């Protein structure tokens, strides 16, 4: 049985498209169709129901898929265990959130360049919500993001945890100690993207304190550099990881507020979707875990 045909079947089952599978595998739609037909003939069963508009797994295809995915994963692991990873070539798209960019992304890129010199990297900086969709749609290879992502065929690797701190410019009229939520809500609060985990946590904190949501000015942004610039200008305050604003804390442009109420820490994961025949995302996720652990052992966090 041809392993490439099994990989093709797994891709078609995931993408539900012969043309997209052909694009992913660097071949033609006719070749994909021929591989599926040959595999079905070898197995003596029909794996896919297809018409002009859609592709669906047959009951036999549903049963075959999990076994095919397992075989492809084992083959990938075998290649990785005996091969020279430095000789790997190809490209991989890494989705990453702002917090990781500010923290240890440069170290990861350096590590990848050292370990896999023939790999081309494409970076996509976006929100965790958008990266989740792109991972599930197999548009990116690995996501470095707030997680975990619970979805079929998706693997999560723990990376790091960042505490959330209340941050503001010294020019805001706020007490040096014992800042209350009433002090905070007198000013606009710049938060992560609407619907994100930290945004939801902030709204829950406001509600638990007895404040109506519409009585508090919460401004959302998917750009931490934008938020940082606005709070440096004294236009409000924000809840951010230390690593995002460390240089501005050091030079006195921003300060940490002594607020009684705290938000839960942000948990980050490397999220990898199974991609038949592609070991690069998993290898980069492992390197990300190594770099995150090294970063966490220093005073940079």
Structure description:
- It comes from Methylobacterium crusticola.
- InterPro entries: LysR_HTH_N, LysR_subst-bd, WH-like_DNA-bd_sf, WH_DNA-bd_sf.
- This is HTH-type transcriptional regulator GltR.
- Keywords: DNA-binding, Transcription, Transcription regulation.
- There is one protein chain.
- The chain is α/β, with parallel strands linked by helices.
- It has 12 helices and 12 strands.
- Helix 1 packs across helix 4.
- The longest helix has 24 residues.
- The mean pLDDT is 88.
Question: Secondary structure elements and their pairing?
Answer:
Elements: H1 3-15, H2 18-25, H3 29-43, E1 48-50, E2 55-57, H4 59-82, E3 90-96, H5 98-103, H6 105-115, E4 119-125, H7 128-136, E5 142-146, E6 154-162, E7 164-168, H8 181-184, E8 189-191, H9 197-208, E9 218-220, H10 224-232, E10 237-241, H11 242-250, E11 255-256, E12 266-273, H12 280-296
Parallel strand pairs: 3-4, 3-5, 8-9, 8-10
Antiparallel strand pairs: 1-2, 5-12, 6-12, 7-10, 7-11
Helix pairs in contact: 1-2, 1-3, 1-4, 2-3, 6-12
């Amino acid at each position: 049985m041809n392993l490439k045909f099994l990989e093709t079947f797994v891709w078609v089952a995931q993408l539900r498209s012969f043309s997209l599978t052909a694009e992913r595998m660097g071949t033609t739609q006719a070749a994909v169709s021929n591989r599926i037909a040959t595999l079905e003939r070898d197995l003596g069963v029909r794996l896919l129901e297809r018409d002009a508009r859609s592709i669906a797994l047959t009951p036999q295809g549903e049963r075959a898929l999990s076994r095919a995915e397992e075989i492809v994963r084992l083959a990938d692991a075998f290649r990785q265990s005996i091969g020279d990873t430095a000789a790997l070539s190809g490209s991989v798209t890494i989705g990453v959130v702002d917090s990781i960019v500010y923290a240890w992304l440069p170290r990861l890129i350096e590590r990848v360049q050292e370990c896999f010199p023939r790999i081309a990297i494409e970076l996509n900086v976006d929100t965790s919500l958008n990266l989740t969709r792109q991972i599930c749609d197999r548009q990116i290879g690995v996501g470095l993001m707030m997680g975990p992502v619970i979805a079929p065929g998706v693997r999560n690797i723990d990376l790091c945890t960042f505490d959330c701190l209340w941050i503001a410019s010294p020019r805001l009229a706020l007490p040096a100690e014992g800042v209350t939520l009433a002090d905070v809500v007198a000013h606009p609060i710049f938060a992560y993207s609407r619907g994100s985990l930290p945004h939801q946590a902030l709204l829950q904190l406001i509600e638990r304190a007895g404040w109506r949501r519409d009585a508090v000015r919460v401004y959302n942004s998917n750009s931490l550099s934008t938020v940082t610039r606005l709070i440096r200008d004294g236009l409000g305050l924000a809840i951010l990881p230390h690593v995002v604003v460390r240089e501005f804390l050091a030079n006195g442009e921003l300060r940490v507020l002594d607020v009684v109420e705290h938000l839960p820490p942000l948990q980050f994961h490397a999220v990898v979707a199974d991609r038949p025949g592609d070991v690069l995302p998993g290898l980069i996720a492992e390197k990300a875990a190594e770099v995150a652990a090294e970063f966490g052992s220093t005073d940079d966090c």
